[in-house]
Design a protein that fits this description.
Blueprint: E1 7-11, E2 14-18, E3 24-27, E4 41-43, H1 54-60, E5 66-69, H2 71-80, E6 88-90, E7 98-99, E8 105-109, E9 123-128, E10 131-135, E11 149-153, H3 163-173, E12 180-184, H4 196-206
């Protein structure tokens, strides 16, 4: 089975998962072109506007969508969207694993750098459809956890400055190497970053770290 078969890199830092005959999960929905209202679970990793986008939360959510995020985002969801407390899940980088009735496991992981202080957000390790996906979020720090797919930011401005050196160096230090690395958080939103993903994928492949692009595939 292909771990990326039902995964879409929607825009910038947005990833959409749809398991075979299973749940639909969004991480940081942003600049959605349609209003699918199909999410079983929405994860908002932190409160910066390119990750916490109220209009896109409204586009993706349906009445029974579950949410995972930090306190300010959950407070907005409760007040402005009327989401009931049982559908709101507060997490931080050290929170325990969560298991959802739709069949998704989520483990919050640290995500931080000089632009994103420790505790202000989190990365997400997801288990669904028989695979594990690590969406690192806005960070310069990668957690050492096993995963089939790692989504690593490479905008080189707010995260992973000098990404062509930092990302391989981070991967080399991990005991648990990801099955495949997917560059994300580049192109379209941050000017001058359109080629960052292809450059990083080429560099990683040349060093023996399998990497694939989702944009344009």
């Amino acid at each position: 089975m292909d771990s990326l078969r039902n995964v879409t890199l929607v825009r910038h830092g947005t990833v959409r998962f749809e398991a075979e005959d299973g749940p639909v999960v969004y991480v940081d929905p942003f600049q959605l072109e349609k209003e699918p209202h199909d999410a079983d679970l929405i994860i908002v990793t932190h409160a910066h506007p390119d990750h916490f986008s109220p209009e896109d939360l409204r586009r993706a959510a349906r009445p029974d969508t579950c949410f995972v995020s930090i306190a300010p985002v959950l407070a907005w969801l409760e007040k402005e969207m009327g989401v009931a407390a049982p559908y709101l899940n507060l997490v931080g980088p050290a929170s325990p694993e969560l298991f959802f009735e739709c069949g998704v496991m989520l483990a919050p992981l640290p995500a931080e750098n000089k632009n994103h202080p420790a505790g202000a957000g989190f990365g997400a390790l997801l288990g669904l459809g028989g695979f594990t996906y690590y969406v690192a979020g806005d960070t310069d720090l990668l957690a050492d956890v096993p995963c089939d797919v790692l989504f690593v930011p490479c905008d080189g401005v707010y995260n992973m400055t000098d990404y062509l050196a930092k990302v391989p160096a981070q991967l080399a230090r991990l005991d648990h190497k990801p099955g495949v690395v997917v560059p994300y958080h580049y192109a379209g939103y941050i000017e001058g970053t359109d080629q960052n993903g292809p450059r990083l994928a080429q560099a990683l492949n040349s060093l023996g770290f399998p990497a694939k692009l989702l944009i344009g595939r």
